[in-house]
Design brief:
The protein is an alpha+beta fold. It contains ten helices and 17 strands. A hairpin with a 2-residue loop joins β10 and β11.
Length: 423
Amino acid sequence: MGRGNPVMDLGQRTVRVTATPESVGFSNERLGRIRTWMQGYIDDGKLPGAITMISRHGEIVYLECLGKRDLESDLEIQSDTIFRIYSMTKPIVSVGLMTLCESGLLKLDDPLSDFLPMFRDMEVYRSGQDDMVRTESARSEISIRHLMTHTSGFCYGVFDDTPLASLYKSRQVEFYPDDGPLETVVTRLSELPLLFHPGSGWNYGVSTDVLGHVIEVVSGQPLDVFLSKQVFEPLGMPDTGFCLPKQQRGRFSALYEATTENPMRLADPRKGSVYSDKVTTFSGGAGLLSTASDYFKFTEMIRRRGQGPEGPLLQPETIVDMTRNQLPGDLASMGQGAFNEISYDGIGFGLGFSVVIDPNLVGYACAAGEVAWGGLASTAFWIDPTNDLTVSFFTQLAPSDLYPIRWDLRNLVYHALTDRGDL
């Protein structure tokens, strides 16, 4: 990971270009192609608007805000627009958990039941559907590491087509903003079987939501308070949180969704999540709102191996551990089927991020050691340590697999590099 210098002050809500492309190994002319590409999606009615930000060696070399944050009100998207980042919440909560590990309050291989006893003696799904499922006893306990790496056996009800998905929906374990306290939702989850024996597979699910409640139990604080004190305030992220205060509502982006009848319509309020200043469920997996400038401060901390604007948030060795593959192989070898966020071949998973193991097996432009993740509304980021490069993309269109946005952007960015270090 590159070290570089921080480029923004604490509390700063907007971002600005801080270096010329040529000064950090980019072609200005080729970077200009990104604007044409973004504008094409907007003109074709496929995206309401978008922000693309590219930095190298800690310097922002490209920042483009195009289109609208609210089509109905004709409001422009701006660098301080507030977005639903959905699953880009997961890396932040994972960082929060690792601050507790560094404090000696828990270890990655501790059993989950040490902190949440309701997860002792779990059952694993074998056959059947709905309330007529057959199970067997789990061969091992769920560990904190299993939660961090999505090898716990939990799944999602809203995304998965597994037999357990309907149970997740009917038992209300989706962690929507108004589902009640985390303890209540997590307790309902503990009554359902696992998809597989802990550690025996990889499946994207509500593991990080459970981690959020672990943080609450270990720290003695609600998750929103803990993250504010341990992550957002030290990094200077004033616009990141689970709630939407009244003074921020004028900068909040509308959420759009695609249907068979309409490629981009205003999402149903429930699907957009009921964000207000009275959120009751702090979803560690998908609940945060943030801005381009705030999230850049977070990715800079990762890129700089734990170093924040005013000192270390985490130790360098912790970031090294988080950003290395924690699986025995890649996702394909873990039985992973189709998943729209990432490739399966050549991609592993660290502690809160996907990790590129072998770029030759991955179906898009990348470099070894890259960490990345994205969100339901088509937001995404990646950090490439080989080229000391960070890219983020913000928009609000769900679901995130409608168009090859992330793959196209990768190709445009890497074609614009004039001194790519991994070739």
